[in-house]
């Protein structure tokens, strides 16, 4: 009984863990995020060519968008612990079948995520589209000005449909895989959680990368018109071939693995509340 009391967790535990974990993983994962966006918004160059341009460049250029990423990630901390710990429990009370419950959880999570994060996501993408050999790094305020000038206020929500399209299966997969591997993973250590998260992230990261590429293209403000998902997909295929839809996959996998591991651990905290 005493041991159970010690293991009892609160929402504050989830928040404290989230702030710390998010700060560390943003620092670790930023280079991958920086390269991913540069690769996905410069499809006319090979991934190797874009990556090569960042080797040995000024750290200031490589760290472009770090503040936006930190704001985005810490912004998630404001609501995700509550979203991940309490919302699933409320849906579970309705006693839906496992898959139906997972769909409801994923729909709520992905919709909320998309609405809240779209503005800062657009700012980050406009900042990170620059590659080392072309443009000087731009600041968040300059990115905001570019978006507003070209697309107005709706521009801050560019790519929302594509974001929702890739976010929903990611959340669904998270909730489903968590339940599937929870018992095995709880008996193992943190590194095992990272391994489980990486393994679980490979299929969903691979299948949603095409939408991520399309989203990056929509958000990059390369053109002032409002391209549709279908229009961009057609243009990418026509000009760059099928392989372009999977550019940035390795960078996404690193980021997705870290975020999935964190989500697993927040769900662990939620199960002990």
Automatic annotation (TrEMBL):
<dbReference type="GO" id="GO:0016020">
    <property type="term" value="C:membrane"/>
</dbReference>
<dbReference type="InterPro" id="IPR023395">
    <property type="entry name" value="MCP_dom_sf"/>
</dbReference>
<keyword id="KW-0472">Membrane</keyword>
<keyword id="KW-0812">Transmembrane</keyword>
<protein>
    <submittedName>
        <fullName>Mitochondrial carrier protein</fullName>
    </submittedName>
</protein>
<dbReference type="Pfam" id="PF00153">
    <property type="entry name" value="Mito_carr"/>
</dbReference>
<keyword id="KW-0813">Transport</keyword>
<keyword id="KW-0677">Repeat</keyword>
<comment type="similarity">
    <text>Belongs to the mitochondrial carrier (TC 2.A.29) family.</text>
</comment>
<dbReference type="InterPro" id="IPR018108">
    <property type="entry name" value="MCP_transmembrane"/>
</dbReference>
<keyword id="KW-1133">Transmembrane helix</keyword>
